[in-house]
Amino acid sequence: MKQNTNQPAATAATAGQSHADALAKRCIAKLRSKDRVSEGLGITIKSGGPGRIALSMAVTEEMLNAYDTCHGGYIFTLADAAFAYASSTRNNAAVGLNCHIDFMRPAKKGDHLYAHSEVTYVGRTTGTTLVKVVDQNNRQIAELHGRYFNVGQAVLDDEASFGDTSA
């Protein structure tokens, strides 16, 4: 029987991934504990990890515009929250430099929107993120492209791994 000579490397990779996942979850929890906007809009966290997050929000009566569709500002806020969370999951306090959003179709009262955000580039001081917003039927509502800046501070004061840019 042949022995797997790569087992220590595989175990180390799993441990590293496990640490990165745990770090991301702690960063997300810390950000969420201070995120009054998301709390006020009923935005919930569905899943998250290093460089990624999924959030959801129900479209309510108060979010409707004059056309009885969800005001684009609420959709943008959901996408922007996902952009912010995903950008800071590696214990790097990140702020948006710029972003743009394209709206594909309207959302209506009662729809559940899901923002799936993923960091697509990690540099020393900046990075980029893609956020796709879909409804409960997986129809694309909007897409946000954002660039963020790492402000040089950790999200978690007690974590020594700030600056880890592994993807």
Structural overview:
This is Phenylacetic acid degradation protein PaaD. Keywords: Hydrolase. GO terms for molecular function: acyl-CoA hydrolase activity. By secondary structure, the protein is of the alpha+beta class. The protein has one domain (about 10-150): Thiol Ester Dehydrase, Chain A (Roll). It contains 3 helices and 6 strands. It has helices at about 5-35, 35-40, 70-85; strands spanning about 45-50, 50-60, 95-105, 110-120, 125-135, 140-150. A 6-stranded antiparallel sheet has the order 1-2-4-5-6-3. A hairpin with a 2-residue loop joins strand 1 (about 45-50) and strand 2 (about 50-60). The longest helix is centred in the first third of the chain and has 27 residues, at about 5-35. The radius of gyration is 18 Å and the shape is globular.
Question: Any idea what the radius of gyration is?
Answer: 18 Å
Class, according to the CATH hierarchy?
Alpha Beta
CATH architecture assignment name: Roll
Secondary structure: number of strands: 6
Count of individual domains: 1
Helix/strand-derived category reads: alpha+beta
Output the CATH homologous superfamily. Answer: Hotdog Thioesterase
Mean pLDDT: 89
Distance between the termini: 35 Å
Annotated CATH topology? Thiol Ester Dehydrase, Chain A
Shape: globular
For the largest beta-sheet, the strand count, sense and barrel status come to: 6 strands, antiparallel
Number of helices: 3
Helix and strand pattern: HHEEHEEEE
**Spatial order of strands in the largest sheet:** 1-2-4-5-6-3
Beta strand % = 25-35%
Low-pLDDT residue spans = 161-167
Proportion of residues in helical segments: 25-40%
